[in-house]
Write a structure and sequence with these properties.
2 domains, 379 residues, Rossmann fold, alpha/beta, binds nicotinamide-adenine-dinucleotide, 11 strands, 16 helices, binds magnesium ion
Length: 379
């Protein structure tokens, strides 16, 4: 019998957090939940805590400490609040930390988990985009394993399991193209928040869904892939594949290609990380080889998706450029979701931030990355 794993889930109340816990629910004998965290959804966090009985819960927004403590009074679950508690819990030794916080808020806990030498199932791509140049060497130094759970990266991780770095010639991420793949640029200027939140193939949190609609997501994922797989921009690319049946492809120097095929369900990559180095069975929907297997591919139209073009420009450039891209995008997406700017203004705001220059901060330490990120947002 396989020993049970202790796990901490950072961002337990979100989409990736929920998918992770649904797999844990199927395997009560395989996992012991050490800690669960959330930003402000204290009711959601309390409900999960009552079900999964972690030793600790952390609510990042201190305003929700009291109601969370009251709800969990008498359960024996330790309740903590605030950013320092979130960072501390990420470093408490467990078998697996799931990094499922959205945006730059996930960076500090992921950084701490890396420095503590944890094995990290990483969904939080913004952490790698902003600080991959620090995280990857720190992971090596501290013996931390990073298991990607972003679906495309997990697909490639699986394809590379028994391969030599020198044999890899190309890595290709697939992109569904999002809800506006077939719209004209003029139609895209009119889209509403509701339309942008309707992803054709994946059900995800709001930020990554908007990033998928602008295709910034695929640009961020190229930068993420560059760090995870130690490959330069010339070896990495993305292609439109509207069916989201193939998730990632790797081309080798002998002309062979390996690709990962599967249903579009985050539980596939998450289960791989949860079980790693074994595979974990779960009640996955069977793959339909009859009607589902139509594989279309097309290049990404960079003129129509300027966010993707901007991210590609940044890839392989100065580390500060990726931080600017990420921070400006996060701010712009937040404004779009509040109704303050239009959909096409997102790219405009990111382009303006990149054109504004270097902001005078060299991102050569974790603190410098945080400082630069903050500076960009303030402007
Ligand atoms: P989500 O919005 O559904 O959930 C985000 C989680 O982070 C929540 O638990 C929330 O409480 C927590 N959080 C938000 N702000 C925080 C803060 N300031 N401090 C502490 N905690 C905070 O997001 P999601 O869709 O689950 O995505 C999480 C990450 O995974 C993102 O980086 C996303 O790009 C990546 N990802 C998601 C999917 C998906 O299917 N949802 C797929 C691939 C990659
Ligand atoms: Mg992805």
């Amino acid at each position: 019998m396989t020993a049970s794993k202790s796990i901490t889930i950072l961002g337990a109340t979100g989409s990736v957090g929920g998918s992770t816990l649904s797999l844990v629910r199927e395997h009560p004998d395989r996992f012991v939940v050490h800690a669960l965290t959330a930003n402000s959804d204290y009711e959601g966090l309390a409900k999960l805590a009552l079900e999964f009985k972690p030793a600790h819960v952390v609510i990042a927004d201190e305003a929700f400490y009291s109601p969370l403590s009251e709800t969990l009074a008498g359960t024996g679950i330790e309740v903590c609040a605030g950013a320092p508690a979130l960072i501390e819990i990420a470093a408490q030794k467990v078998d697996l930390v799931v990094g499922a916080i959205v945006g730059i808020a996930g960076l500090a806990p992921v950084w701490n988990a890396v420095e503590a030498g944890q094995t990290i199932a990483l969904a939080n791509k913004e952490a790698l985009v902003s600080a991959g140049h620090l995280i990857m060497p720190a992971a090596q130094k501290h013996g931390a394993n990073i298991l990607p759970i972003d679906s495309e990266h997990n697909a490639i991780f699986q394809c590379l399991r028994h391969e030599r770095q020198d044999d890899i010639e190309r890595i290709i991420l697939t992109a569904s193209g999002g809800p506006f793949l077939r719209m004209t640029p003029a139609e895209m200027r009119q889209v509403t928040i509701e339309q942008a939140l309707q992803h054709p193939n994946w059900s995800m949190g709001p930020k990554v869904t908007i990033d998928s609609a602008t295709m910034m997501n695929k640009g961020l994922e190229l930068i993420e892939a560059a760090w995870l797989f130690d490959k330069g921009a010339t070896k990495l690319d993305a292609i439109i594949h509207p069916q989201s049946t193939l998730h990632g492809l790797v081309g080798f120097k002998d002309g062979s290609w390996l690709a990962h095929l599967g249903i579009a369900d985050m539980r596939v990559p998450i289960s791989y990380a949860l079980g790693w180095p074994e595979r974990l069975s779960w009640k996955a929907q069977p793959f339909d080889f009859g009607s589902a297997l139509q594989l279309d591919f097309a290049p990404v139209n960079e003129a129509k998706f300027p966010c993707f073009r901007l991210a590609k420009q940044v890839m392989g450039g100065a580390d500060e450029q990726a931080i600017i891209l990420n921070a400006a995008n996060e701010e712009a997406v937040e404004r779009f979701l509040k109704g303050d700017i239009g959909f096409c203004d997102i790219a405009g705001q990111v382009e303006a931030a990149l054109a504004a220059g270097d902001f005078g901060i060299v991102a050569d330490s974790f603190d410098a990355v945080v400082a630069l990120d903050r500076e960009i947002r303030q402007r």
